[in-house]
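Entry for the shared binder. Reason: the reviewer on the internal report wants the predicted structure included alongside the sequence.
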Amino acid sequence: MNATSNPITIVLGDDHNIVLKGLRALLESQSGFTVIGEATDGLKVSNLAEQLKPDILVVDLMMPGLSGFDVARRVVKRLPKTRVVILSMYSSEAHVVEALQSGAMAYVVKDASPEELANAIREVHAGRRYLSAPYSNDLIDTYLKRPGGVDPYDTLTPREREVLHLVAEGLTSGEIAGRLFISPRTAESHRANLMRKLGLRSRTDLVRFAFQRGIVPLEAMGAPGPADS
């Protein structure tokens, strides 16, 4: 591809600034790539993608604001021409499957080579799915086709998922209200609804659920207060 003609535009999302700078330098050293934006917060990177409409969004799974799964769901729904590449330290089959179910077209582990990430971006831009080794499309297709019941998480609304993420980070209803520009009463209502749907009884249960699902990293979780445990 000619670097001066129709470069692949990319937005980056990762919760570590040093990783973002490294990714930007890596990708801009490749022929035909242009990084047009970056953010360290899931909500911000989602909004940035909607604003800039890149060809490719490369996003980490674990970020404050929204997880990479939820960013992928939002972007795929609102920007059908933007393709999502998940870049993650997690290599479990469950994470790969959920990423694909969220609408991502590629899953690349963070210990992959720079050449592999660049190749994944080019494959996705061409409309093809890309998975890091040892995962193959046939293997993951088998998992995707397995019968099973409805995942309670899939019953949550986008707003309830946002509230779940923020509660797990330790924010109070008042802080969540300020972050999402809603009233504290509405934030409480979303929290009650999502806990009912997930069958959770306390904030401790909610934090455990968020960690097990890979929604937020352990270090981002706030300690439950006396009233939450």
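Summary line for the report: The radius of gyration is 18 Å.
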